[in-house]
Design brief:
Blueprint: H1 15-22, E1 27-31, E2 37-38, E3 53-57, E4 61-70, E5 83-90, E6 95-100, E7 113-122, E8 125-132, H2 134-141
Antiparallel strand pairs: 1-2, 1-3, 4-5, 4-7, 5-6, 7-8
Length: about 140
């Protein structure tokens, strides 16, 4: 089943993030002072509290850090269950809460390699979700 893609709240601070996602690009903010990757999108570094941050394209790759299968949901997701809600640890370091898609919930594994995919949420935004990486799929099929 395809998950709904409700329009996110777009603010001045996050507009560039959502616009890039609509183009299929995952952006992260980076701190010029301590070089930390910042997640969720915000202008102040949570590590050193520096306000000098900038956007940089992320690889869009990561691994499943933790997950749960949602079997009862509400709101826009009410009829989408079961679906996977996960923390993905990005190659750049931050862990982000997201959905895993293009995989049956019973096939998800901690440590599994995933890559970003983008579901259109409106004319200027897309939701960043993650799907199994091609090499993970090849391992399953022996290819």
């Amino acid at each position: 089943m395809t998950l709904p893609a409700p329009m996110p709240l777009v603010t001045g601070e996050t507009r560039e993030f959502w616009a890039a996602a609509a183009e299929g690009i995952l952006l992260l903010r980076w701190c010029r002072r301590c070089d930390a990757a910042v997640w969720y999108p915000r202008t102040i570094c949570p590590v050193c509290h520096e306000a000098d941050t900038y956007w940089r394209q992320a690889s869009g790759t990561g691994t499943v850090y933790s997950y749960t299968v949602v079997r009862r949901a509400a709101g826009a997701y009410k009829d989408a269950a079961p679906f996977v809600l996960a923390y993905v640890e990005l190659a750049e370091g931050p862990r982000i809460m997201t959905n895993l898609v293009r995989i049956s919930p019973d096939r998800v594994r901690i440590g599994q390699a995933v890559h970003a995919v983008f579901d259109t949420a409106g004319p200027d935004a897309a939701l960043v979700r993650f799907a199994p990486s091609p090499e993970t799929e090849a391992e399953k099929t022996g290819g």
